From TrEMBL:
SUPFAM superfamilies cross-referenced by the UniProt entry: UROD/MetE-like (SSF51726)
Cofactor: Zn(2+)
Residue ranges occupied by any Cobalamin-independent methionine synthase MetE C-terminal/archaeal domain in the UniProt entry: 5-330
Stated name of the protein: Methionine synthase
EC number(s) on file: 2.1.1.13
GO process terms (BP): methylation
Length: 346
């Protein structure tokens, strides 16, 4: 029988201090060449072990082999110059120095497939693998070639589809596309953003997910959240279109956010990964806090379609804090799972 409320993570987990600077996004690697390759695999195994010890049901690589969830994929593509950098506004909220698209983008070989095969060799559990979504990719670059966000997004969608098919063949069970840009550029989401996401999943037989969060728990994002008022209704813009899409699972930020729970009505019928762990706080949730978030979500999501997870990636957190949060996630899910099995009150 399929397990109720299978737990997962939204994305990254903290890297070991011998591999990268702790609590730092985009940290340079501390190792080089063959030592780096070996170190990445060791970190991946430690990440897997931490998830298994916490009782996570659907495991991931914890993004241990990549510096950043977007740029590590992009740096393997043709047509992008990482030496030619420009400062652009990311997610319309902070400035960053980014590489430039100087020609037609293409992928000569797979980016993450060998990592996925390595992870598959070491676990029989379901694996979820995250890729950047087309709209979030274009929002993390300066485009001097296509000069059209939509055209570049379609090109990235084709490349992502190639990678996704190879990941599926390597044994990945769920392929997730990270699209925090969906919470910012509403007109583009509805005009072509969801359509390019559909192109990225075209022909896949494994389950597919889109993760739409409010960003890592870094100051630029937490400052932005303070401007959003008492209700965060950004999901209201994209959910109706996503409900009609071919995407199987929608992953959203929930615990400690101001997202009204009833917005999940807009994706009724879809599987939902509910973020029940706040990655913007060092406070470790209690199992009962997690359970309460899940109980509220069950008013709008059928129990067999609810997947407890984290709000976003945990790369900037201390490792011990992240491990504590994973344990709280699984303990909270266990509480609600027992309630469902004994009395089905939801």
């Amino acid at each position: 029988m399929k397990k109720l409320l299978p737990t997962s993570t939204a994305g990254s987990l903290p890297k070991p201090s011998w591999l990268a600077q702790p609590e730092t996004l985009w940290s340079p690697w501390k190792l080089q060449e063959e030592t780096l390759a070996e170190g990445k695999q060791d970190a991946l195994l430690l990440s897997l072990q931490a998830q298994q010890q916490a009782g996570i049901d659907i495991v991931s690589d914890g993004e241990q082999t990549r510096q950043h969830f977007v740029t590590t994929f992009i740096e393997h593509l043709n047509g992008v110059d990482f030496e030619k950098r420009e400062t652009v506004r990311i997610r319309d909220r902070y400035d960053a120095s980014v590489p430039t698209v100087v020609g037609a983008v293409s992928r000569q070989k797979s980016v993450f497939v060998e990592d996925a095969k390595f992870l598959r060799q070491h676990t029989g559990q379901p694996i979820k693998w995250a890729l950047p979504g087309p709209m979030t990719m274009i929002d993390t670059l300066h485009d001097a070639h296509y000069k059209s966000r939509e055209k570049l997004a379609w090109e990235f969608a084709k490349i992502l589809n190639e990678e996704a098919h190879e990941l599926e063949a390597a044994g990945v069970d769920i392929i997730q596309f990270d699209e925090p840009a969906f919470n910012v550029f509403f007109d583009e989401v509805n005009e072509w953003g969801v359509a390019t996401l559909e192109r990225a999943i075209e022909g896949l037989k494994c389950e597919t997910a889109v993760h739409i969060c409010y960003g890592y728990g870094i100051k630029a994002n937490t400052d932005w959240k303070k401007t959003l008022g008492s209700e965060w209704r950004q999901y209201e813009e994209a959910f109706p279109k996503l409900q009609k899409s071919s995407i199987d699972i929608i992953s959203l930020e929930c615990h400690n956010s101001h997202v009204p729970m009833e917005l999940m009505e807009l994706i009724r019928g879809k599987k939902v990964m509910v973020g029940a762990i706040d990655v913007a706080s060092h406070s470790i949730e209690t199992p009962e806090q997690v359970a309460n978030t899940l109980r509220q979500a069950l008013k709008f999501v059928d129990a067999d379609k609810l997947y407890p997870c984290t709000n976003c990636g945990m790369a900037p957190l201390p490792r011990q804090i992240a491990r504590g949060k994973l344990q709280a996630l699984t303990a909270g899910a266990d509480i609600v799972r027992r309630e469902l099995q004994t009395s089905a009150p939801y």
